[in-house]
């Protein structure tokens, strides 16, 4: 798993990445015990691990696996604080999908 690609996504791309490990940047809008809601161009329910220390209102980067119900099981979470340019973070997501060949190895092993 150390070399596994973690595509950057937001809520719009969840369905395309079911059962895959992804990277998501967004704003923590709610914490409920072992779950949280991350706003990444739409709400995403995330299931936290014991090492997740996030704060409502702060930006966070989550690396996790997209579940069948489009929630994300967190493998690693990083609190980015309260000063993040969400438009820039979303632009990076869009660029990585527009120019996949630059950011990710092809699945065909070209």
Helix amount: 10-25%
**How large a portion of the residues is in β-strands, by DSSP E?**
35-45%
Mean pLDDT: 91
Unreliable stretches covering 5 or more consecutive residues: none
- The computed structural class is alpha/beta
Tally the helices.
Answer: 2
Separation of termini? 21 Å
Instruction: Tell how many strands the DSSP assignment holds.
Output: 6
Strand order of the largest sheet: 2-3-4-6-5
Order of helices and strands: EEEEEEHH
Largest sheet geometry: 5 strands, mixed, barrel
Radius of gyration (CA) equals 14 Å
Q: Looking at the structure, what is the overall shape? A: globular
Tell me the layout of helices and strands:
Blueprint: E1 8-9, E2 21-32, E3 35-39, E4 43-47, E5 59-66, E6 72-81, H1 86-98, H2 100-103
Description:
The protein has 110 residues and is of the alpha/beta class. Helix content is 15%, strand content 38%. It is built from two helices and six strands, in the order ββββββαα. The chain has helices spanning 86-98, 100-103; strands at residues 8-9, 21-32, 35-39, 43-47, 59-66, 72-81. It has a five-stranded mixed beta barrel. It is globular and about 40 Å long. It starts with 7 loop residues before the first strand and ends in a 7-residue tail after the last helix. The mean pLDDT is 91.
Question: Keywords, please?
Answer:
single chain, 110 residues, alpha/beta, 2 helices
Task: Summarize, please.
This protein has 110 residues and is of the alpha/beta class.
């Amino acid at each position: 798993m150390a070399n596994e690609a973690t595509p950057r996504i937001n809520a719009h791309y969840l369905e395309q990445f079911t059962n895959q490990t992804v990277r998501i940047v967004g704003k923590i809008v709610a914490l409920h015990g072992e779950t949280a809601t991350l706003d990444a161009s739409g709400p995403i329910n995330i299931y936290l691990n014991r090492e997740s220390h996030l704060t409502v209102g702060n930006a966070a980067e989550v690396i996790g696996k997209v579940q069948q119900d489009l929630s994300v099981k967190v493998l690693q979470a990083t609190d980015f604080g309260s000063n993040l340019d969400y438009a820039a973070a979303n632009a990076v997501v869009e660029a990585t999908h527009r120019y996949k060949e630059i950011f990710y190895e092809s699945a065909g092993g070209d």
